[in-house]
Amino acid sequence: MNVYFACSITGGREFEAVYQAIVGALAEEGHEVLTAHLAESGVGEVEAVVHPGEVYARDTAWIRACDVLVAEVSTPSHGVGYEIGFALGAGKPVLAVYREGIKVSKMLTGNPDSNLTVTPYRTSGEAVRIVREFLERNAVGQAGRE
Fold first, then answer.
1. pLDDT at residue 36 in the model
2. pTM recorded for the entire structure
3. CATH C-level class of 2-145
4. What would the 3-class secondary structure string for 26-64 be?
5. In the predicted model, is pLDDT for residue 21 greater than 50?
6. Contacts of 144 (CB under 8 A, 6+ apart)
7. Where are the alpha helices (DSSP H) in the chain?
8. Residues 139, 100: Cα–Cα separation, whole Å
9. CB neighbour list of residue 9: distance below 8 Å, 6 or more residues apart
10. Which pLDDT does position 9 carry in this prediction?
11. What is the domain partition of the chain in residue ranges?
12. Counting Cβ atoms within 10 Å, is residue 111 exposed (0-12), middle (13-18) or buried (19+)?
């Protein structure tokens, strides 16, 4: 399955270990994570030199090409919010996970779109489990689209 992984880059990297756990588990299971580099340490410096127009064109193309979008939304990010909205507009299933106890925008938690799942987690292991279950549920839908 092609997965677009979204996470905060410029807004803060407090949850980088969770990003890495999610992306690592997806890669181990054979999924293609189009944005795996976003979980890596130092990604802010790498992405800082890419022109904004290039980022937009690249990332929206990846979202169009993905089967699902998985976002870690514990750290507020304009980019992640935009990517989620773009993916939903394109009819993609979206999972937004966040650390339990953190306030998440009501634009996400109140969104009734049937393609959006918003779920808290307590540990990185639980976040990985939630992502796996989401992919299993959406793999059934993918089989019907192929």
1. 85
2. 0.90
3. alpha beta
4. HHHCCCEECCHHHHCCCHHHHHHCCCHHHHHHHHHHHHH
5. yes
6. none
7. 16-28, 43-48, 52-65, 78-89, 106-109, 124-145
8. 26
9. 38, 43, 44, 47, 77, 79
10. 84
11. 2-145
12. middle
